[in-house]
Design brief:
By secondary structure, the chain is an alpha/beta fold. The chain has 27 helices and 13 strands.
């Protein structure tokens, strides 16, 4: 009764453990941020150690389970085709029309269907609507020139045991204007397999052989054929061209086979839905004791084919044909002393772990580690650029698994015997891959689509390589919450370090008006991102002036961007300088965190490199005036130096040249290369362009604004 007389008992509100953990981390956000970023970098360097051996996930592929059927007659016919093509080169200075005719004759002699596909190059101009949608496949006068069009030769074998709903594509790019021995051998390898497949009975999928004319580029010839394959044209190219150029005779109007003397169909022919595609190229000899096979798999926006396709090619090349398989590396990292020291530490830790428990298999030799890092860096670099590494990229745009195979013979193939040996070995490899894909009952789906290669037979899956990225960006939301809480505290100091060193948690009750203080900085952030959209559209107008060089175009882009940025600040007035820099930095970090997370879904490699550059910039940035007024001069000078270096390195053109120099060296770098690279991003509709101008650039501008903030 005594308790009731004094009034109801007040129970102390219980704080949830998750909230306590959040408050604890926010009060020590500096230590947590540094630890997470360092752990993310270390985890990224440990990916070659965590890489797994590749394996075949789809049991139906069964690579190497059947004996090769490629006969000496197929190799002889292929060698004859090579001789015919090289004979044309000696007779005609430009064998642009004769090579397709010779290919058509050989394909027709096998009983396969022959057709010719004529195309014009697609203009690589920036277009507002084409960036977010596929290019218009209609034949428009702006895309048709009065020069000779390119001509692809297409051969189709109908599968005797199939229903015509699926197909396998073999692609051999060649120069129709000046075909050399490498082009002739590429055509010979594909023809030897095509000759075999024209008479086998086990074929369940149609076979399409595309001899792509590369006068306008390897990718453009394949992409033009794919556009018409999936989006048919109802107005022929020759008809449109005759209306535009009535005075010119179309030398490429092949209505008759001049060699065989019989009429050939001029219509576009199709087979089934494409299950997979192999691009076959031959390069000059290498310096190794065996034939070398190079695999290129990166497509636009960092897309990769199903890992099973790469595994089948690697297994057959190594275990059946004795080839040396290689993938691209960043050779500048192969001689890195820092990587070797880090690799020695990993090897030492691995040896100690195995001495304690033989089942603890951690650590790899130093040479393997350095090679794995160089390969991983090359894979990240190629995917982050967002540009395909070969003609196979055109197939990936249609969700078709494709890979480019570059075969280099160990010796010169000028003699007939060496040439036949090379054609036989390469043909058996392609035959084995075709037989494995032919066994599939459905599309590739069992293995990984998201992975990074650390070697021809080593890969890192998405579940592993997302760990470094998560550690890198983990400090961003915590730092944003801490800055927001400190910025809204009554009488909060403008110095972040003073607030972070306070022993009390940076959480205090705020009034309703103070809780809406983020709206002012949010308006500035919104204005900067609106300006970034205008900057992204400026190249559309700059590219209309064809007389500008890449360097002049880049300088014009920068100048117009600075002028528009100045106009934006004039419209905002002095109100943008009166907002608290802590809340502004909090909103900037939040938007950058969202942008990096979204980009990691589209192109992980771009988001990973962006996180390496932007996270330290977002964490370290601090007003210059506040540092100049600080009592600890040495600490202030160190922070000012870090801010200047991070802002310069994070600026997109500077970051591009640093990465390019790391990949290929700094000799001969021209500032116009950045504009040329941006033009290539437009042509490929790469999301990397959107990331640069809508996420990376606004973050750098806002960080510069924070540095110059009159706190």
């Amino acid at each position: 009764m005594g308790e009731n007389e004094t009034g109801p008992t007040t129970r102390k509100k219980r704080v949830r453990p998750l909230v306590l953990i959040g408050i604890l981390l926010m009060s020590h956000h500096v230590i947590f941020s540094v630890a997470c970023y360092v752990a993310g970098v270390v985890a990224l360097l440990l990916l070659p150690v965590l890489a797994k051996n590749t394996y075949i996930s789809e049991n139906a592929l069964m690579p190497g389970s059947a004996n090769n059927m490629l006969s000496n007659a197929d190799v002889t016919d292929a060698s004859k085709l090579v001789s015919d093509i090289m004979g044309l080169k000696s007779k005609f200075e430009n064998a642009g029309i004769e090579v397709p005719l010779i290919l058509g004759q050989h394909i027709a002699n096998l009983g396969a269907e022959v057709s010719y596909h004529r195309f014009h190059p697609r203009p690589d101009k920036f277009h507002l609507l084409h960036f977010f949608s596929s290019h218009d496949v209609k034949v428009v006068p702006d895309n048709v020139t009065c020069s000779h069009p390119g001509m692809n030769t297409v051969g189709i074998i109908r599968a005797p045991g199939g229903d015509g709903k699926e197909a396998i594509v073999l692609v051999t790019p060649y120069s129709a204007v000046g075909a050399d021995m490498k082009d002739a051998l590429s055509l010979g390898v594909a023809y030897s397999v095509f000759s075999l497949l024209s008479r086998v009975s086990w074929l369940a999928k149609d076979i399409i052989w595309l001899a792509a004319d590369t006068r306008y580029g390897e990718h453009e010839s394949v992409a033009a054929w794919l556009r018409e394959y999936y989006s048919p044209l109802f107005t022929s190219l020759s008809e449109t061209r005759s209306k535009i150029c009535p005075a010119n005779r179309d030398d490429y109007n092949v209505n008759q086979n001049l060699v065989a003397g019989k009429e050939l169909p001029d219509g576009f022919r199709r087979a089934g839905t494409m299950a997979a595609a192999l691009v076959i190229k031959v390069l000059s000899g290498n310096n190794h004791a065996e034939d070398t096979l190079g695999m290129y798999a990166e497509a636009s926006n960092g897309q990769m084919p199903n890992l099973d396709l790469i595994n089948v090619v690697n297994y057959l090349a190594v275990h059946r044909e004795g080839m040396r398989v290689k993938v691209e590396k960043l050779w500048s990292l192969m001689n890195s002393k820092c990587l070797r020291i880090f690799g020695q530490v990993i090897e030492l830790v691995g040896n100690v772990a195995r001495s304690l428990n033989p089942q603890w298999r951690f650590g790899i030799p130093v040479a393997d580690y350095v090679e794995g890092v160089a390969t991983l860096a090359s894979s990240l670099h190629s995917q982050a650029l967002g540009i395909p590494t070969g003609p196979h990229g055109a197939f990936r745009d249609y969700q078709i698994d494709a890979v480019t195979l570059v075969i280099s013979p160990k010796v010169s193939v000028n003699s007939n015997a060496k040439q036949r040996e090379f054609l036989s070995r390469s043909g058996r490899l392609v035959e084995g891959v075709v037989r494995s894909v032919n066994n599939l009952l459905e599309k590739f789906h069992q293995s990984f689509f998201l992975y990074l290669l650390t070697g021809p037979s080593k890969f890192v899956s998405v579940g592993v390589y997302m760990i470094p990225f998560g550690l890198l960006i983990a400090p961003l939301p915590l730092m944003a919450a801490s800055l927001y809480a400190n910025g809204n505290k009554p009488g909060a100091s403008s110095n972040l370090q003073n607030s972070s060193s306070n022993s009390e948690p940076p959480i205090a009750p705020v009034s309703i008006l103070e809780s809406w203080r983020w709206l002012g900085p949010a308006k500035l952030v919104f204005a900067v991102h609106t300006w970034a959209i205008a900057v992204a559209l400026l190249p559309y107008f700059i590219s209309k002036n064809q007389s500008l060089t890449p360097t002049t175009s880049l300088l014009s882009w920068i100048l117009l961007s600075l002028i528009s940025l100045h106009l934006m600040y004039l419209l905002l007035g002095s109100r943008s300088d009166k907002q608290g820099w802590q809340v502004l930095k909090s909103v900037t970090i939040s938007i950058t965190f969202i942008g990096l997370c979204l980009m990691s879904i589209v192109n992980f490699a771009t988001a990973e490199i962006g996180a390496l550059l932007l996270v330290p910039l977002c964490l370290m940035i601090h007003p210059l005036m506040s540092d100049l007024k600080a009592s600890r001069k040495l600490e202030a000078i160190a922070r000012i130096s870090c801010n200047v270096v991070l802002v310069i390195v994070g600026f997109p053109p500077v970051a591009f040249f640093l990465l390019k120099g790391l990949a290929v060296g700094y000799a001969g770098i021209d500032i116009g290369e950045f504009w040329s690279w941006v033009e290539s991003l437009w042509a490929w509709n790469s999301a990397t362009y959107l990331y640069i101008v809508l996420v990376h650039l606004p973050c750098c501008v806002l960080c510069i604004h924070i540095v110059l903030h009159p706190s």
